[in-house]
Amino acid sequence: MLAPYTQVVEELKVKLKGIRKQFEYDSRHSPIEFITGRVKPIPSILEKAENRKIPLEHIEREIQDIAGVRVVCQFVDDIYTVVEMIRARKDLTIIEEKDYISAKKESGYRSYHLIIEYPVETIDGMKKLLAEIQIRTLAMNFWATNEHSLNYKYKGSIPSEIKERLQKAAEAAFKLDEEMSMIKHEVQEAQRMFHRK
Ligand code: 0O2
Ligand code: 0O2
């Protein structure tokens, strides 16, 4: 069942990396810094299914992030540029958008999520599969990676003192994004000069 999901992740990675390459050829600022992707490990799929009482035969429809791709950007504006570019594509269909940037999660989590339907050719014919694209800044990614590790360590029940620190850290990360946005043009000009050199 998971084999076509691996195909989806690899294809999406190639396509999104292609966007970055095209900006580089043009010596233009790429809204994409880097891409990562993964197929959700089987134990995580089963755990999510159990927690949400999803019967095994409904997993493909109800667990939307079996295939997951993450697009990491330098600036908050870049996130919306990437969203626009994905909305304009003809090779996938957006099923749902979740803007956890304007409406952050209670944990402090910020990111823009797109749930897409992606047609993949398999040996048994074409199959449309769901995938999740998470789009976030480097600062949001730093926070989410650390929070994810702590969640793992504390099995989802992070002590309240650490939770508060994480919420403060999330605000600090967002402040960093805002401050960097103020000097975005300076940074981009410097990067263009470096690239030409
Ligand atoms: P590039 O050309 O360096 O961007 P693959 O299957 O080989 O394509 P892999 O290694 O399985 O890719 O990719 P994975 O694990 O999904 O994502 C790792 C990619 O993200 C690597 O790039 C890393 O260089 C990049 N990456 C991860 N964390 C960071 C980070 O903090 N900063 C930066 N700049 N890049 C990061 P690739 O795929 O090797 O390609
Ligand atoms: P993984 O692979 O371990 O990251 P919903 O049904 O919409 O309420 P669902 O389906 O869980 O909830 O979707 P949601 O919350 O939109 O996004 C799911 C994924 O977003 C998570 O995947 C995380 O990758 C990421 N995410 C959401 N909230 C947080 C958060 O508070 N902290 C961190 N670090 N990441 C978050 P999984 O399933 O947790 O799996």
From TrEMBL:
Pathways involved: Purine metabolism; ppGpp biosynthesis; ppGpp from GTP: step 1/2
Gene Ontology BP annotations: guanosine tetraphosphate metabolic process
Span of domain RelA/SpoT: 37-158
Origin: domain of life: Bacteria
Keyword tRNA-binding: no
SMART domains in alphabetical order: RelA_SpoT
Pfam families to which the protein is assigned, alphabetical: RelA_SpoT
Keywords of the record: ATP-binding, GTP-binding, Kinase, Nucleotide-binding, Transferase
EC number, as in UniProt: 2.7.6.5
A Gene Ontology molecular function term of the record: GTP diphosphokinase activity
Protein family per UniProt: Belongs to the RelA/SpoT family.
Subunit structure of this chain's protein: Homotetramer.
Listed name of the protein: GTP diphosphokinase
Species annotation: Virgibacillus salarius
